[in-house]
Amino acid sequence: MTARAAIFRYLDLEVTDTTLMGHYELDGRHFHERITFSTTGPLTAPAPRALADLWFLLAGLSYYKAGAATTIDLGTTPISQAGRALLRAAVTDGLGEFAYRNALDLTDVDIIGGVRTSPVEVSLDETSVLTPFGGGIDSIVTVMNLNENITQKLFVMSPPSGLFEPLEAAAAITQKSIVRATRSLDPQILTTDPDVFNGHVPVTAMVTLLAAIAAVADGSGGVVMSNEHSASVPNLSVAGREVNHQWSKSLVAEELIAAAVAERIGSQFTVASFLRDRSELWVARAFSELRQYHAVFRSCNRAFAQDPARRSATWCANCDKCLFIALILAPFMTRAELAGIFDGEPLAHPDLTSQLTALVGQGSQRKPFECVGDPDECSVALQAVAESDEWKNVLFLAALARRAPSSSTLPQQLEPQGVSRAPAAWFR
After folding, report:
1. Same domain, 330 and 255
2. What are phi and psi of 64, to 5 degrees?
3. Do 268 and 333 share a domain, yes or no?
4. Is residue 422 one of the residues assigned to a domain?
5. CA 206 centroid distance within chain
6. Which helix or strand (DSSP H or E) is residue 127 part of?
7. What is residue 169's three-state secondary structure?
8. pLDDT tens track for 209-254
9. Residue 421 CB: number of other CB atoms within 10 A?
10. pLDDT-derived band of residue 313, with 50, 70 and 90 as boundaries?
11. Which of 12, 57, 68, 274 supports an S-S bond with 142, CB 3.0-4.6 Å?
12. Average pLDDT, stretch 261-272?
């Protein structure tokens, strides 16, 4: 059994006009991560430099997890109350799945050190925003539905190994300018080492902060995320604590990030999700009408492997994500159109029945550890598919639909869900 480390230290953050370099130490073992930006203003300006400290804190969790140290020493890292609250939540909840899978309790972590800091003044254009873009249905729908009076650029993250082709193809269709950042992880963390812990970290929260840094450096007044209502739904509850694979896409994380950003540069800058009060089915319906993207978009994780040799050139049509995307699109597209996207029919594949069963909440936990919708959304989609004449010959779909009744209807799922922090100016 892997033993927990004693102390994880935040050593230093180096900032140049175009790069961030974080330095960390885990029980004497050193790690380094570099982010290289393009087409932004200087990162050394006061506002982006202030936000870089927040990124530095969350980025460290990629290396902290190797030892799950009982003490985190922030050293001389600038941090104030909201920033500390964000880091604490990122450790206990952002690493919730990691802790669950490794049978760890991270509520006992002692966070020490850090120095208080004051906000910096910034002048931003509130009619200009940066939208993180991943080439999937969520960010495509956001880009295409944002108020045309808002100047919008895309924020694209890439690994040092090269650009992701499906993402680039989708981005080209938007005809938007792109701000790029390349993330170079310490190679030590990419190897399989039996003496360290491995698992999921809150990557989206890190990307959100990197987008905020780039936006502020460029004078833009906001970051437009694409996280739906269901991202706040946990996968399971353990000893009274919720475990959510999508914690860093949740409303709670959004609020914590926004508060920490406001603490550093004031409230003029907005970090919010355009899709926060929308269901996955609302997004799927909107995307079904954007036919120009159907041949190029990709949500399968295997298309975005760090190693180009391991990247899939097509949808794998076997993973939970492929199955989920097929399921939510099916009520709004013909069976032939759906088969054309996936070059096959995940929904008709009997070998995927157990995965589909998990998606609709009939498995051992509320939903799979994947970026998928909540069980009720999936059940509503399944009911619609099972009742469709096109799918009636797939008998196991109807049988599963009978075992997984939904508590809402398709029309209800297409109505706003919960609250949204997105400003009215972002909407048409």
Report:
1. no
2. -55, -40
3. no
4. no
5. 9
6. strand 125-132
7. helix
8. 999 999 999 999 999 999 999 999 999 888 889 999 999 999 999 9
9. 15
10. confident
11. 274
12. 97
CA end-to-end span of the chain, whole Å? 55
What three-state secondary structure class fits 164? coil
Q: 0.90 exceeded by the pTM?
A: yes
Q: Which residue, 273, 291, 313, sits at the end of a domain?
A: 273
Q: Is the pLDDT of residue 364 over 80?
A: no
Together in a domain, 65 and 196: yes
The dihedral through the CA atoms of 369, 375, 381, 382 has a sign that is positive
- Looking up tokens 């995927």 gives 352
| Contact predicate 26/67, CB 8 Å | yes
Q: In whole angstroms, how large is the CA radius of gyration of the chain?
A: 21
DSSP string spanning 338-350? HHHHHTS-GGG-G
Q: Is 307 in the same domain as 264? A: no
Considering 273, 293, 324, which residue would you say is the last residue of a domain? 273
b/e 273-283 (16+ beta carbons within 10 angstroms → b): bbbbbbbbbbb
Could you tell me the residue range of the domain that residue 228 belongs to?
Answer: 7-122+178-273
Q: How far apart are CA 118 and CA 22, in angstroms?
A: 21
Number of domains within the chain: 2
Could you tell me if 112 and 75 are in contact, meaning their C-beta atoms sit under 8 angstroms apart?
no
Count CB neighbours of 16 within 10 A: 12
